[in-house]
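Margin note from the TA: students keep mixing up input and output lines. Inputs are the sequences; the output is the structure of the whole complex. Example:
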Amino acid sequence: MKLRAVTKKLESLEETIIVQLSERAQLCRNSAVYAPESTSCSEKITSQSLFDLRFYQWERSESLFGRFLRPEERPFNRGLPEPRYGGLPPEETLPELGIPIREYDEVNLTSPIREAYLQLIPRICPEGDDGLYDLSMERDICVLTAVSRRVHFGAFYVGECKYRQEPRIFRTLAEHGDTRELAQRITRKDVEERIMSRVRAKAHRLQRGINRRVRNVVDPEEIVQLYRKTIIPLTKEGEIRYLLRRLTDHLRRPTARGPMDRHPKERSPTKS
Amino acid sequence: MKLRAVTKKLESLEETIIVQLSERAQLCRNSAVYAPESTSCSEKITSQSLFDLRFYQWERSESLFGRFLRPEERPFNRGLPEPRYGGLPPEETLPELGIPIREYDEVNLTSPIREAYLQLIPRICPEGDDGLYDLSMERDICVLTAVSRRVHFGAFYVGECKYRQEPRIFRTLAEHGDTRELAQRITRKDVEERIMSRVRAKAHRLQRGINRRVRNVVDPEEIVQLYRKTIIPLTKEGEIRYLLRRLTDHLRRPTARGPMDRHPKERSPTKS
């Protein structure tokens, strides 16, 4: 995938994130659903929160339909079933990427995404409880998966594009485990600032002229901060994880263990 | 619920419908998922389409979480399980409405909503197949449930508000089964035109300034036509069904069967 196609896709996900956050902000915080052991209406099942239970069930279905075969769709839950219906054919490795499907979860950043989003809810949603739990959980899932898609799409595909521009430099840095220099190489401060300006402008534009007696508005700065503190840093973190995994595979083979050898199991070499 | 609160809610659902349609339009038509017997990647399960299967599984989960206890959330599928987690307490009748929860599905218009939406997909989505089936099905479900929420919220709550404004007239019309006069009484052509103008303006506003190299745009007239041909007529159809069910209950008791007596089972009288 060409870098231009990748950045187009990332740009188009900005609207998705903004409108899904705005949809969530039409409902109250409903903090009860995130509390542990909130799953207790007609019977007690687990110590999970209602939200955890709903999200697990949602991902369970999506897994059956093959969603997590795509690199940008990383699961927030573990213990999901294998794909069963439709979806992509189960290829070992997608031609655009340098690691096989079964290793995608080496680049799974859903845990910090979830944490950042749960902290954002009280900042964008009205106080209180409207009882529309199923609906607010649905919207939580839409936001979380949109943010995760943005982060992981960037991590895998921007990471791969950057590697292909300077393969020898990236290979050397990865082999030396030089994550600091890798981080510098993949950082473009000007691009980051441009993304945040564009997100701010879109968040204003998409909510301009809204009837505030009817709809709640999300402060555009909250969305910019989500990009600044979560989406952009996690995308870069994901790029580094992807590059290390992609480029140091031979170091992790039993005959030649190296500094990155945290997964010393025997594996077939990835293409590079 | 006061009519003003009801119309506020209906107005706020307009943005939801528009943005969810726009989200769907970022993906291809993917007509394969709607074809019967498309559920056949790794094993053959049923003669359902992939979409039917996914939608059923989604509603099955939502039913467990109590979604269909609310009048505006009508299921598109039959044979769903009883609520189990969270959600509303299972009251017999919500105080704002005159029929008990177990009768909500007498006002279920999901079948024509589904049909109208499936016809709309090729009008708003690019041709072809992008393989992102799980994602396009998720967005289909978001659109379908948003449209259904708009139609049924209007049917139940606008119907109830109109009845409370002129209870004797509506009672008489319902007892005579005069659906023609009922339809005239609940119709406000000026309000309908105002809604459609507002929807048109919002569909323009929400897509203004979009980068068309990155995002697809939905023709605002397609959304106006969805309101004109589907949402508004079905809401009125639902109001009539609701009023007939609400007001002719005694006619349907075994001792006094009337023209509306299509469900002659013994029932406790509804409040009125």
